[in-house]
Automatic annotation (TrEMBL):
GO biological process: DNA replication; DNA synthesis involved in DNA repair; double-strand break repair; SOS response
Any one GO molecular function term: single-stranded DNA binding
Descriptive protein name: DNA replication and repair protein RecF
Main localisation: cytoplasm
Pfam families registered for this protein in UniProt: SMC_N
Compartmental location: Cytoplasm
Organism name: Reichenbachiella agariperforans
Length: 368
C-alpha cells in the first residue's frame, strides 16, 4: 500500500497544495513552524479519520476559512482509491472513499493503516495510563472491528453513567435502577475489552522485545504489565461496592477505563528506573512493534510517518533505526526534518526511491 498523491485545501496552514509521492521515502524539509508536521497529520487523518495532535476537528481549519479538505489517492494491490476527508464549520465531518460516504467513521478503521513516530510519543512513558490505553486501543481497533464497536459502546455508557451521577447530585434524587442498567452494560462490555486486551498483549510482546533487541546495545527484558479489575471474578460486585464513592466523586471509579499498562525494563518500572536511552529505545520499539503487528494482522504494509526523529535521537540510534526501516519489511515512509543537508546525508545512500520536498510557510516545492 502506498499514498500516490495528496491534495490539501484550507488545512491548518495550507491554502491549496498538492503533491505526488514516490513509493518508498518522501521527505519534508523546512524550518520549524513551516508546516512539515501538518502534512504528516493530513496523511494520519486519511487513515484514522482524525488528527494525531488536535482532537477538535474545527481547529484544523485554516484561519479565517470556513472548511478544510484532505484528499489522497492510495494504491493497494494495483487498485487505486480516492480517500477524502472534509469539514465545514459548524457541520459534521464527512469521510468518503471513491465518492461513497461512510455511515460510521469506524467503518474506515484498518483499511489504510499508518504508524507515526513523533516527539510527543514520550507521553507514553511520562503520562498516565489513559495515554497508553488509547495507544493500545488504537492498535486493536484497526484489526478487530468487534473490539472497536464494544469499546465505543462502553465509552458511550460510561459517559451516560457519569452524567447521571452528576444529575443525582444536582436534583438530589437517586435512581438505583438506572445505575443497574448502566452497570450491566459496562461489566459485560468491560469483560470483552479486558480479555481482548490481554490476548492482544500476548501476541504484541514478542514484536516489542525483538525490536528493542535490534535498537539497544544491551540485552534487556522489556515487558508490558497489564492489570484490569474486569478480569476478576467479582467484577460486577466491585461496581456495586464503589457506588457510594462514585456518587461522592461524581465519576465511575471502576471499569476498564481504569485499566493499567505498566512498561517495565528488567522487571522494574521504566518510568522510574529506565535511563533516557532505554526510554527512547522503548518508545521506538513500541511503534515498530505496532507497525509489524498491524502488518501481520491486516496483511497490509502500513505507511510509516517519522516526525523530527533526527532531532530527538542520538547518532547511534538514528543509524540503527535507518538500518531497520531500510529493510524490505517496510514500504512507504514519510520523514520530516528541519535540516535539508542532514536529510540528504543520511538518506540518499540508503534509499534509491527518494523524494525531497521543501516546505516554506505552507507551500511545497519538490527538490528531487
Amino acid at each position: 500500500m502506498f499514498l500516490q498523491s495528496l491534495k490539501l485545501s484550507n488545512f491548518k496552514n495550507y491554502l491549496a497544495e498538492e503533491a505526488v509521492f514516490c513509493e518508498h521515502v518522501n521527505c519534508f524539509v523546512g524550518l520549524n513552524g513551516s508546516g512539515k508536521t501538518n502534512l504528516l497529520d493530513a496523511i494520519y487523518y486519511l487513515s484514522l479519520t482524525k488528527s494525531a495532535f488536535n482532537t477538535i476537528d474545527s481547529q484544523n481549519i485554516r484561519h479565517a476559512e470556513s472548511f478544510f479538505l484532505i484528499k489522497g489517492e492510495f494504491k493497494i494491490n494495483n487498485k487505486s482509491s480516492i480517500i477524502q476527508c472534509s469539514l465545514k464549520a459548524q457541520e459534521k465531518k464527512t469521510f468518503k472513499v471513491d465518492g461513497q460516504e461512510y455511515d460510521k467513521l469506524s467503518q474506515h478503521m484498518g483499511k489504510y493503516p499508518v504508524v507515526m513516530i513523533a516527539p510527543n510519543d514520550d507521553e507514553l512513558i511520562r503520562e498516565s495510563n489513559e495515554v497508553r490505553r488509547r495507544f493500545f486501543d488504537s492498535i486493536i481497533s484497526q484489526y478487530d472491528p468487534e473490539y472497536l464497536q464494544v469499546l465505543i459502546k462502553y465509552n458511550h455508557h460510561l459517559k451516560q453513567r457519569n452524567a447521571a451521577l452528576k444529575q443525582f447530585k444536582e436534583t438530589r434524587q437517586f435512581n438505583a435502577t438506572l445505575l443497574d442498567n448502566y452497570d450491566a452494560v459496562l461489566t459485560q462490555a468491560g469483560k470483552v475489552i479486558a480479555e481482548k486486551r490481554k490476548a492482544f498483549l500476548l501476541q504484541y510482546q514478542p514484536y516489542f522485545q525483538n525490536n528493542y533487541d535490534e535498537l539497544a546495545d544491551q540485552k534487556e527484558n522489556v515487558t508490558i504489565d497489564y492489570s484490569s479489575k474486569a478480569l476478576e471474578v467479582n467484577f460486577k460486585e466491585l461496581f456495586m461496592e464503589s457506588r457510594d464513592k462514585d456518587r461522592i466523586m461524581l465519576r465511575t471509579l471502576v471499569g476498564t477505563h481504569r485499566d493499567e499498562f505498566i512498561l517495565k525494563i528488567n522487571g522494574k518500572p521504566l518510568k522510574k528506573f529506565g535511563s533516557q536511552g532505554q526510554q527512547k529505545s522503548t518508545l521506538i520499539s513500541l511503534k515498530l512493534a505496532q507497525f509489524e503487528f498491524i502488518k501481520a494482522h491486516l496483511n497490509l504494509t502500513p505507511i510509516l510517518l517519522l516526525d523530527d526523529i533526527f532531532d530527538k535521537l542520538d547518532d547511534e540510534r538514528i543509524q540503527k533505526l535507518l538500518d531497520i526501516i531500510s529493510s524490505d519489511r517496510f514500504g512507504q515512509i514519510f520523514i520530516t526534518d528541519a535540516r535539508e543537508e542532514r536529510t540528504r546525508d543520511l538518506l540518499i545512500k540508503k534509499f534509491e526511491a527518494l523524494k525531497i520536498f521543501k516546505i516554506d510557510a505552507g507551500q511545497m516545492t519538490e527538490l528531487t
